[in-house]
Specification:
The protein has 398 residues and is mainly alpha-helical. It has 3 domains: 64 residues, Orthogonal Bundle (434 Repressor (Amino-terminal Domain)); 124 residues, no CATH class; 137 residues, no CATH class. The chain starts with a helix and ends in a 10-residue tail after the last helix.
Length: 398
């Protein structure tokens, strides 16, 4: 059974060698503590590990307790239930451009999506969770299940009953939807409450404090989530340093998503920062032009994972200059944009996104032109009426 020590080390994305170095102990000692082979662990060793993991007042002996994610027998049952219930739904092949089953088309439209983003996420993480390919697959599957399935949405329940293969009638669909969301909530809640209180307090502080000295301290946290929030509130030179030196994709995402022009100029040259840069609401138009060029060039290159993720968000931005959206659309129409099986879901969603965004811009432009035309017509009528009315002084010259 995994210990709290191993759970926290993995949460901080540290290897055994990294944590041992930070704590000033040997990797062999750390390994024995994590596996329970150390029969008489020293208090000073556990204290060093608490300090390295920034756990403050946590009792050192608590590091040897079972991980909350392994100690709860209900989690295994919830994982099996979540996977088995979602497998009842019609199969969605996110590697193909044409889908035979209409359920996912209607479902995505019903919950407000123009593309198959919900279907791709559920299908992708369901496949990964079923195969056990990723430790976080089941957790991610649970989060997206809670995001997309609502047992109180009558239209969704009717669609599940009619085309979802969950059973006949809305009452059965409601029971299925409640069971699947209950299982997802058990898994989601376990992850959210598996971190010590001290780590949660640091995370909140990193997003709220205005103290430059404290922000500087939090930038050196072993937890990437805390570092990311601290760097997002830091000066531009510190953000640029994070882009160039921090090993965490999460930190780069946070920095690139809020950085101003000097930070954006660096982020556009670092593919790992592209997903965050694509979400930056203040993206500079000149940098956006270079950004689109780089993303399109890398969709078949070594950075295709970051490029496909960035493309998905870029194509959903009506504030992006229209020539850039047109360039993406032209690249799609020429067949220059494609993805392999791992990232095709994002690329295919981008195809739908860019066409939907352009259609939205066309509709807004047509509506504005109609309003302008109506104003011009009203102005013309008023001017015509004024021309027909005789000048006041003509009454005295007759």
């Amino acid at each position: 059974m995994k210990t709290m020590l191993e759970h926290l080390r993995e949460t901080a994305h540290l290897t055994q060698r990294d944590l041992a170095r930070l704590a000033g102990i040997t990797q062999e000692t750390l390994s024995q503590l994590e596996t329970g082979k150390s029969t008489r662990p020293r208090l000073d060793t556990l204290t060093k590990l608490c300090e390295a993991l920034e756990l403050g007042s946590m009792r050192p002996s608590d590091l040897l307790n079972p991980s909350p994610l392994d100690a709860d027998p209900e989690l295994g049952k919830a994982e099996v239930q979540l996977i088995s219930l979602l497998k009842v739904l019609p199969h969605y092949d996110y590697t193909l451009r044409v889908r035979a089953d209409v359920f996912w088309d209607l479902f995505c439209q019903q919950i407000g999506y123009r593309d198959h983003y919900p279907a791709a996420k559920i299908a992708g993480w369901l496949e990964s969770a079923s195969a056990g390919n990723s430790k976080s697959a089941t957790t991610n599957l649970a989060e997206y299940t809670l995001m997309f399935f609502d047992p109180d949405n009558e239209k969704t329940l009717q669609l599940l009953a009619d085309r979802g293969r969950v059973g006949p009638g809305v009452p059965v669909a409601r029971r299925w939807c409640r069971d699947v969301t209950d299982a997802a909530w058990i898994l989601h809640r376990a992850v959210m409450t598996s971190y010590p209180q001290q780590v949660g307090q640091l995370y909140v502080e990193a997003g709220e404090t205005d103290n430059p000295e404290r922000i500087a301290e939090l930038r050196h946290s072993v937890y990437e989530e805390i570092r990311g929030r601290a760097f997002a509130h830091s000066p531009a030179d510190e953000q640029i340093r994070a882009l160039r030196e921090d090993p965490s994709d999460n930190v780069l995402y946070e920095v690139a998503s809020v950085g101003e022009q000097p930070v954006q100029e660096v982020a556009v040259t670092i593919p790992r920062a592209w997903p965050g840069l694509a979400r930056n609401p203040e993206l500079d138009p000149a940098i956006a032009d270079q950004f689109v060029t780089s993303v399109l060039a890398e969709l078949r290159g070594p950075n295709k994972r970051h490029a496909s993720s960035a493309l998905l968000d870029l194509t959903d931005r009506p504030d992006l200059p229209r020539p850039l959206l047109e360039r993406i659309k032209d690249a799609i129409d020429r067949g220059a944009v494609d993805g392999d099986d791992d990232y095709r879901a994002e690329v295919l969603s981008s195809v739908l996104n860019v066409r939907g965004t352009l259609s939205q811009l066309d509709a807004e432009s047509e509506k504005a032109e109609q309003a302008a035309s109506a104003r011009r017509e009203r102005l013309h009528v008023v001017e015509h009426q004024q021309d027909d009315k005789p000048a006041w002084w003509r009454r005295f010259t007759r």
